[in-house]
Amino acid sequence: MSASAIRFDFDNSYARELEGFYVPWKGAEVPAPAMLRFNAGLAAELGLDARALDSGVGAAVLAGALAADGSEPLAMAYAGHQFGGFSPQLGDGRALLIGEVLDRHGRRRDIHLKGSGRTPFSRGGDGKAVLGPVLREYLVGEAMHALGIPTTRALAAVTTGERIDRDGPKPGAVLARVAASHLRIGTFQFFAARGETDKVRQLADYAIARHYPELTDDAERYLGLLERVCNAQAELIARWMLVGFVHGVMNTDNMTISGETIDYGPCAFIDTYDPAAVFSSIDRHGRYAYGNQPAIAQWNLARLAETLLPLIDDDQDEAARRAIEVLNGFAAVHRQAWLAGMRAKLGLARALPEDAELVEDLLAAMAGQKVDFTRLFRALSDVIRGEVAGARELFHDAAAIDPWLARYRQRGALEDGAAHQRAAAMERVNPLYIPRNHKVEEALAAALDGDMAPFDRLVERLSRPFDAQSGAEAYAFGAPSEFGCYTTYCGT
Ligand code: AMP
Ligand code: MG
Q1: Is the pLDDT confidence value at 489 over 90?
Q2: What phi and psi, each to the nearest 5 degrees, are found at residue 273?
Q3: What pTM was estimated for this model as a whole?
Q4: How many angstroms is it from 282 CA to the middle of ligand 2?
Q5: Residue 4 — pLDDT band, cuts 50, 70, 90?
Q6: How crowded is residue 81: how many other Cβ atoms within 10 Å of its Cβ?
Q7: Which of 253, 271, 283, 372 is catalytic?
Q8: Position in ligand 1 atom list of the atom nearest CA 251
Q9: Ligand 1 atom, smallest distance to 92 CA
């Protein structure tokens, strides 16, 4: 087999500029690589030859078993705080960056494989990934993208023909994923923990050039970098909150410098509104609960700030003072992004001081009522159109929402647009379809049985989350009660 049929036009800045930040490495050979799902739309956006890549040779390349021309596969070094405890050495234990391309818009994108075999960072792990979690990341990542949320994306899911032992044999797979970069807070922590300040500076300069180039000539660029990352993450987490997304494993190695969502493991969407919602089996204390995500993001950013202190000011007390000032700005930026998003969800184009209370009171009214978060916001467009019943009946006790609905209609009277236009605008931000947990499980179970049809249907529904699709009613509802409490597992 030859990989020369597949052209990537790689331009590998990480390999070129950051020697010592990674280990050049090769993917493992696999018995029978086969393309299971290929994202032709994304391939086109990346300027790749989709026809050539969606092939047996393409599968071998995207499994990591075969290197394409110009590829410089490498395993990146990083550290991370996992559930609050610091691990000085994590790194790509089962992943490889195979190269970078400039996409059709001139944006630099990493092409990265997850599940491509052991690396020097594997520790006790086997370096592999299995089909269920690979398809889960594909599905949820693409759904997040369609929801307009910054995220890594899925280029392909490849099966390897291997059986991997995970509580019994499971089909092996590799996810080919695309990201603005794989720089994580943990990447900075790796070098900071070793006292390698020059390397932290080199990394910061690289991150600035790649993600925040407007800072390049700024005398305060390292403080500026911290501020940009804080803002990007504050806005990202607001977006998560607005759609009810729970990441589930917000360790510092799973938080990007670019502001993209990364590493879909035990993530899930809430059906009913509950700030304490936790799905991951290993998150026993609710550290990464739905309502905790903003505070955790800020905690993680404080860890990034610590790595940058030596670059911010020679006087470390002064550096800390300035970094803390930036970190303290996180809450306000997050709150503002969240409130702006909530206003849009409520169809309020004007910003009035009392809106915050209106939103808080809606959430308070929802708490304890087992109200479906996604459906309620969708039903509010009908309220604007004069039909209140749909929203009321989502409440266990319909009367509990009546005072709020009265206030909402009074507030709506202060808006300018025609009701139907306002309702339509709301339906462009309030999704009808999100990856409902029971639908995700159903699709993955069928896929593991060799039937990809439910997966494909779900991907299709979720690619247009705001448009009512005929025959898709079942995708717009939460899990039936017999589905029970939902638990997710880290997909290692
Ligand atoms: P994750 O939970 O996927 O964010 O991974 C956390 C760390 O564990 C990273 O350093 C991974 O590379 C590593 N890791 C996870 N699964 C495996 C595996 N099967 N083999 C080797 N390393 C792994
Ligand atoms: Mg990770």
Answers
A1: no
A2: -70, 125
A3: 0.97
A4: 15
A5: confident
A6: 19
A7: 253
A8: 4
A9: 12
